[in-house]
Amino acid sequence: DLQICQHRAPTCCTKRMEESYQAAVRRERTQSIQALNFELKYMIVGHITAFQEAFESLLRFAENRTSALFETAYRPMAKEAAEPVKELFTDISLYILGAETTVESAVLRFFDSLFPLVYSRLINPGITDLSEDYAECLRLTRQDINPFGRYSKNMVTELSKSLWASRMLSQALSLGVEVINSTEHAALSKECSRALVRMQYCPHCQGLTLIRPCVGYCLNVMRGCLASVSELDAQWREFISTLEYLANEMAASHELEVALAGIWSSINEAILHAQLNGPQLSATVDKVCGQPKQQQGNLSSANIVPVKEVTETQPFVMAHTSLNNKRREFINYMKRSRTFYASIAERLCDGDLVMRDSSTCWNGEDVV
């Protein structure tokens, strides 16, 4: 009653053993593919972690530098500005990780929150009662009266351009892990599991437990079983090329690092622009939002403080170098894996599975 290991000679197998063999080959094939995938997946997951750590380090450095700007140059609003600054850098981090947000919305939301503070603490420091309604009116009119000039839009442009490649690379790496995971759990067809049993276990039914499959026979069976997986070859090669392109885009002009390091400067220029145009802004705001309660005297001119670069740059340089090195090592490794799916049958037939140094092997029917 054997269905797979039929042979003219007497056999020591039963139909139940054949069923056990089919379960075994399915389990073994999954384990073999997992073992092949392990190094590749380990490298991708490791780079995702390393990339995120290096990026977060750059982000923390840029955030600390921006916070220091408010502490040193704009102390009257430093405490209240802490939350908008934190939200800005959180939004940037989420954008890189693929969240449904945009750099433009993050930056403009930051400037919306910043304008009431700049207006009441620097342009009109005599304001004693900044009610929530008045602050909301200032937030809503920020886009119409454009108190920060071209600097807010310039910041959107620079960050959008530099963060795009990082976001795409982060998403591409996650996609790569998904692809690898899907190949590990590709279901074997009934014909494939029968072919694998015939190749690996039918010799056992004849008592030939030391005879292994012939190399050519193994390759034919594996290529048939893994046809759907090997079809990924063209797309995988294209995926590697895309990773290479994105990494080169990030490394070409160091735009990511430069843009993050320059956030504090853009904000400083924007605030100075608003202060220098304080009288015009006040006149427009009075028409739109009305006049808030004020003490006598306007102290705005005394609060314009030019800011020079004073922050230690060593942590930034280290994070930048680390990110570049990790990027280069990873892309070199991935380029070596271009043929991963084209050669998967050869790799599975390598090693202990087949008979290489013997004159006899199993061809599916007999020992040859």
From TrEMBL:
<dbReference type="Pfam" id="PF01153">
    <property type="entry name" value="Glypican"/>
</dbReference>
<dbReference type="GO" id="GO:0005576">
    <property type="term" value="C:extracellular region"/>
</dbReference>
<keyword id="KW-0449">Lipoprotein</keyword>
<keyword id="KW-0336">GPI-anchor</keyword>
<dbReference type="GO" id="GO:1905475">
    <property type="term" value="P:regulation of protein localization to membrane"/>
</dbReference>
<keyword id="KW-0654">Proteoglycan</keyword>
<dbReference type="GO" id="GO:0009986">
    <property type="term" value="C:cell surface"/>
</dbReference>
<keyword id="KW-0732">Signal</keyword>
<dbReference type="GO" id="GO:0090263">
    <property type="term" value="P:positive regulation of canonical Wnt signaling pathway"/>
</dbReference>
<dbReference type="InterPro" id="IPR019803">
    <property type="entry name" value="Glypican_CS"/>
</dbReference>
<dbReference type="GO" id="GO:0016477">
    <property type="term" value="P:cell migration"/>
</dbReference>
<dbReference type="InterPro" id="IPR001863">
    <property type="entry name" value="Glypican"/>
</dbReference>
<comment type="function">
    <text>Cell surface proteoglycan.</text>
</comment>
<keyword id="KW-0325">Glycoprotein</keyword>
<dbReference type="GO" id="GO:0098552">
    <property type="term" value="C:side of membrane"/>
</dbReference>
<keyword id="KW-0472">Membrane</keyword>
<dbReference type="GO" id="GO:0005886">
    <property type="term" value="C:plasma membrane"/>
</dbReference>
<comment type="similarity">
    <text>Belongs to the glypican family.</text>
</comment>
<protein>
    <submittedName>
        <fullName>GPC5 protein</fullName>
    </submittedName>
</protein>
<keyword id="KW-0357">Heparan sulfate</keyword>
<keyword id="KW-1003">Cell membrane</keyword>
